[in-house]
Description:
FAD/NAD(P)-binding domain; 8-stranded mixed sheet
Amino acid sequence: MSDNYAAYNIIIVGLGPVGAIMAKLLANFNLTILILEKTREINSSPRAIHFDGEVMRVFQNAGLAAHIKKVARSTHKGMHFLGENNETLLIRKGVEGVGEQGWENNWYFFQPDLEKVLRESLKRHPNITIRLGENVTNLRNVESKTQVVTETDLNKGKMYYEGDWIIGCDGAKSLVSKSMSSKIEDLGLDEKWLVIDLIVNKDSLKAASLPDYTIQHCNPKRPMTRCYINSSRRRWEIMVLPDDNIEEVTNAKFIWSILKPWLSPRDAVIERAQIYTFHSIIKTEWRSSHMILAGDSAHQSPPFLGQGLCAGIRDASSLAWRLGWVIEGKVNKNIIDSYVQERKSHVREFIDLAVSCGKTIKSGDPKLITNYFKLENIEQKNAFDFPKPQLGSGIWMEGDPPLGQISPQFFDEVHALSDYNALYKLILFERLALKENLFGKSLQIVKNWDIAILRANKAVEKWFDCMNVNATLVRPDRYIYGMANDLEGVVDMLDCFQRAMNGKKD
Ligand SMILES: Cc1cc2nc3c(=O)[nH]c(=O)nc-3n(C[C@H](O)[C@H](O)[C@H](O)COP(=O)(O)OP(=O)(O)OC[C@H]3O[C@@H](n4cnc5c(N)ncnc54)[C@H](O)[C@@H]3O)c2cc1C
């Protein structure tokens, strides 16, 4: 290996949150990973502040739940929708306590704090190399490999790398995506919003009296969102109007004039204010030979549901086990296409929902708001849960939900969560005494794929009863592969899984 050349199994371009969790999930496979990141510091722009219970479960499966809990707070406080005259149109309650995913449904955090935790966690893995300050300038597929050229920020010297696979986690302006195709599908939202992060003064009574939940100002004259990040941080997202002077909206004078009803410069410091163009897009190509996209490089959502990063984390959880097994030689590389098919249609549902949420907020029309949340009337106070779309066609026994949906997580008798039995591995929940009854080929499949067989406890039995089944195979990313009623059905399901892993469809 020369000084300016090195080869790895996987090269991840971009060490944002998606690149980091991708590397973390891949690290336990038998492979080498290089991460190339053009900046040295973590991005400090005001971006994600919310993730959901499913994403917390991905962190759990990556062995990070305890670390993430230190920088994120859970809440069930929900969201209040106010009209033009600050009248309450709707209170969208959050789900109280632990939700279906085994974690609270809503978590708030400051993105740079989260990214710091993710980066720190990568240092524990000798098979991960991180090169900061290296801008990827060129990349291409060459036969069964990919070649990458970078320019270092220190002396502008060039480095050359070769990878079996490249994962483009390089964000909205992705070079990896551009090198595949420039086609995008636009889902209909493209508008400028001013995003302001404030550090509140601890002695300020005004700041202390701000609500500890999110408020949507559905005021067509100035649509706006106010968020409570944590006890010291607040976020305002304000729509930029056609008459606004773009040069002036990030000025302190303009910002304080908007914030005047709630805060003055005595109450808080503007940490950052930035104009973003919110997009709603999905790239048409997510894979070209040995290059694959994940996160904002593949899709972008307006932040009205706090789901853009969540989708990227789901991408990582969906891709890492497939790619890990491809590189370990267990499965054919064609299964990577199933990642693209499954994730594309799943993310579309969330982006569509975020776009219509944005339109509803802007309209200020109470009827639209009740319709959006499928309520009979404005007084009805339903708790809101995120949708659970089925995956697009891929590695699961296609059929009606809950097949292809995210599975619930269960507590055992000592209050431990079921995923801890087999982090980021397959789990077969059952009440058919499978440990005693599985033989021959089926048992071999269980061994080959390191499937953890978990005997149903009361909580799992209740789930089984609702679905009228006696066994369920759950994938490492916790989506439901298949269900069975009896031993014969389990044998078929395992057989079907084995065939899918061989790249064969029924
Ligand atoms: C105002 C706002 C609010 C948001 N709120 C939420 C929210 O509440 N919840 C939520 O889920 N999502 C939210 N999002 C979306 C979320 O911030 C993004 O989806 C997320 O940051 C995407 O992560 P990523 O890792 O894919 O990309 P990025 O975070 O953009 O990381 C990409 C990385 O790649 C690096 N890179 C790029 N090009 C190269 C190159 N050529 N060579 C080397 N490195 C390169 C970049 O430097 C960067 O570090 C919000 C976004 C905005 C703008």
